[in-house]
């Protein structure tokens, strides 16, 4: 155990967050996301029993978002015609706003298959048990400035 580190972040996840460099991306996936398939060239970290919001909040306490891109946070866009509501996105935007001055303005949407393509090139994918649909989120790492 360490002081000041959210206990939900496992040693493996902390190691990965530390290893990531500027512009590397990490996906926090919902329970329906094909994490193992998408993560064939990435590190896949299982966080079963947890949802995306608590993982996102813990990560953003330590993880700077990329200030050099307009949308360092991206959500998987709902497929047109799919009658799905996404209230979890508002939760994500509130969490992001706690840690980045751009707030919801730095959150974008990526078409479903384009999201999959980008996920295949992510440094890591965190597989959660999140039950909300379209609850996948991708973060692009910035630089630590002290």
What does this structure look like?
- The mean pLDDT is 95.
- This protein is globular.
- Helix 4 links the parallel strand 3 (73-76) and strand 4.
- It has 146 residues and is of the alpha/beta class.
- Helix 3 runs parallel beside helix 4.
- The protein has a single domain (22-140), classed as RbsD-like domain (RbsD-like fold), CATH 3.40.1650.
- A six-stranded mixed β-sheet has the order 2-5-1-6-3-4.
- Helix content is 29%, strand content 18%.
- GO terms for molecular function: D-ribose pyranase activity; fucose binding; L-fucose mutarotase activity.
- One of its GO terms (biological process) is fucose metabolic process.
- It comes from Candidatus Galacturonatibacter soehngenii.
């Amino acid at each position: 155990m360490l002081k000041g580190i959210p206990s939900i972040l496992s040693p493996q996840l902390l190691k990965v967050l530390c290893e990531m460099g500027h512009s590397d991306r990490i996906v926090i996936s919902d329970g329906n996301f094909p994490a193992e398939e998408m993560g064939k060239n990435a590190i896949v970290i299982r966080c079963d029993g947890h949802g995306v919001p608590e993982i996102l909040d813990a990560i953003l306490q330590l993880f700077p978002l990329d200030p050099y891109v307009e949308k360092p946070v991206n959500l998987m866009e709902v497929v047109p015609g799919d009658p799905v509501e996404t209230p979890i996105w508002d939760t994500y935007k509130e969490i992001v706003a706690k840690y980045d001055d751009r707030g919801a303005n730095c959150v974008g949407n990526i078409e479903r298959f384009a999201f999959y393509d980008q996920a295949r090139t992510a440094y890591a994918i965190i597989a959660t048990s999140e039950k909300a649909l379209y609850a996948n989120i991708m973060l692009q790492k910035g630089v630590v400035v002290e």
